[in-house]
Amino acid sequence: MTVIRGERRAAVLSFAVAGLVLSLFPVGYLHVVAVGELSPLSHTISDYIFVANGSGLLAVTALSLAAASVGLLVVLVRSGLPRRGPVSWLLGLWAVGLTVATVFPTDPTGSPASFSGLVHRYAGAVMFTSLPLAGWLISRRFIRSTPVRRFSVAAGITAVAFMVSHVSLTYDGQVLLGLFERILFALLYGLLFALAAAVSREVSR
Questions:
Q1: More confident residue, 70 or 5
Q2: Average pLDDT of span 36-51
Q3: C-beta separation of 145 from 86 below 8 A
Q4: How does DSSP assign 172-190, residue by residue?
Q5: pLDDT one-digit tens code per residue, 108-164
Q6: What is the C-alpha to C-alpha distance for residues 118 and 157, in angstroms, rounded to an integer?
Q7: Which spans are transmembrane here (predicted)?
Q8: What residues have CB less than 8 Å from 21, skipping those under 6 apart?
Q9: Which residues, in sequence order, are CB contacts of 59 under 8 Å at separation 6+?
Q10: Tell me: the pLDDT tens digits for 80-90?
Q11: Closest residue by Cα to residue 151 from 103, 197, 200, 99
């Protein structure tokens, strides 16, 4: 029975890692095709919905990332993480935030805020806060992993910088929203891959 459970956890973990890898391709493609159209310094990743086929491709990225995160949560719970503890809630909020931000797209840069744009913005605030906190708690209370802890701290600091960049932090007249968000996403991906590696070690024991 223990062997079967271990195999199931390994299968779910493989699904999660595949989802993480898959989520990188659509957004990477959009970065390439939108060169000269959107600035990676001032435009957020959400702005790629205004590029040809951008809405669908971003949806694939966000939903693959959400599914992968749920997969990691399932493996963590099956490895002993409390189902109703703060970490489970935080990881759940991260996945829900990604989904909500997909359903409610952002507004075009410079346009008045719409209901959809406001929901998108607050969903982003929730998800960018939740995942670093979840990673930090996991590294402190459940899986002792230095990479997970370091990525969590770095992502938390960058999340604050990203939120501050909405009202300041400019360069050559450009608000640096896009720059800080891309750094933040790179750190969050690093955190998720580091978490997957740490969970893999636990599963293989």
A1: 70
A2: 88
A3: no
A4: TTEETHHHHHHHHHHHHHH
A5: 877 788 999 999 999 999 999 999 999 999 998 888 889 999 999 999 999 988 887
A6: 23
A7: 12-36, 56-77, 89-106, 118-139, 151-171, 183-200
A8: none
A9: 102
A10: 888 888 999 99
A11: 197
Q: Where are the alpha helices (DSSP H) in 43-176?
A: 54-78, 86-103, 115-141, 146-164
- What are the beta bridge partners of residue 171? 174
Domain ranges in the chain are: 2-204
Structure-token match 């951008």, residue found:
54
DSSP-assigned letter for residue 170: E
Q: What tokens appear for 203 in the block? A: 């599963």
pLDDT of 172: 47
Residue 101 and residue 120 in contact, taking contact as beta carbons nearer than 8 Å: yes
In the block, tokens 């939120």 appear at 163
